[in-house]
Fold:
Amino acid sequence: MYSYILFFHSIWRWFVLVALMAAIFRGFKGWLRHEPFTKADDTLRHMTATAVHIQLILGLVVYSFSPLIRYFWSNYHEAVHERDIRFFGMEHSLMMLIAVIIVTIGSMLAKRRTIDRNKFKVMAIFYSIGLLVILANIPWPFSPLVSRPWFRML
Structure:
């Protein structure tokens, strides 16, 4: 089961990244051009936050069943000095949780704004910050911190 959840967590990140980029693009465009915040914009805002939350749930399941994380918590004093293990045991999970919180706050604030331009502004800014945190903490194949493949196979 662990390998399947890890696979879906790895694949779902691409949906999250595409959704965030689309929402950010639409946010900046609507904000700068003073466009009306349509039902489609609200759906994009909501679906992007939902995609991020699904990724969080998948990540929590991976975290719960990961042998790497089990090793991290049972051998904390040694594991905290090992780059790969510390990255997944602490850094990746904490920073991704922060990114989810940022995106969630942005979604909630955008939903509650009454002026369309402010809805776009909040969405563009919070989703951009969330995306930057996510991009900095994904274990890319080229990352000097920890690398993993572009697509994880089963």
In short: The two ends are 10 Å apart (CA to CA). The longest helix spans residues 2-32. The mean pLDDT is 94.
